[in-house]
Amino acid sequence: MKERFKYIYDEKTGILFKKYFGKITLIDITSSWDEEIQNNRIPANTKGFILDYRDATFDLKENETSGISDYYKNNLKIFNNMRIAIITESPKDIVVPFLVKENDFNYSSKPFTTVKAAINWVLNQ
What we know:
- By secondary structure, the chain is of the alpha/beta class.
- The protein has a single domain (5-123), classed as STAS domain (Transcription Regulator spoIIAA, 2-Layer Sandwich), CATH 3.30.750.
- Helix content is 34%, strand content 30%.
- The chain has 5 helices and 5 strands.
- It has helices at residues 26-38, 65-74, 76-79, 95-101, 115-123, and strands spanning 5-10, 15-24, 48-58, 83-87, 108-112.
- Strands 1-2-3-4-5 form a 5-stranded mixed sheet, sandwiched between helices.
- Helix 1 (26-38) links the parallel strand 2 (15-24) and strand 3.
- Helix 2 crosses helix 4 (95-101).
- The chain is globular, with a radius of gyration of 13 Å.
- The N and C termini lie far apart (38 Å).
- The model has no long low-confidence stretch (mean pLDDT 94).
C-alpha cells in the first residue's frame, strides 16, 4: 500500500511536520494521528504542527470538516495551546482549513500556501 502520510520532527524548531499524499479522508487524518499518539511518537517538546496537503486532496463530505476539529478537541493532551498550520494550494481544498478554524478550541489553526509562512506563524506564539 502506498504511503499516505509522513512525519518529520525538526528538532531545531520543535515543529512536527506531517505531509499527506493522495486522496485523504477523515479516517486517514484521525487514524494517522492515533497511530502517532498511541506509539508515543510526538515529542513532548513539540512547539506546533505543520500539516502539508500540497501533494494531497481532501476527500471529505461537507459535514466531515467538523470531525477534524472535534478530533483536536478530543485530544487536547497533544493539541492544547498548539498552533496547527495547514498548507494547501488547491482552491478546492483551501476551504477545509477555513472550516476547521471555525471550530478551534484551546488550539489555533490557520491555512497557508507556503511552508515559510506556516513556520513563521507556528514559531511566533
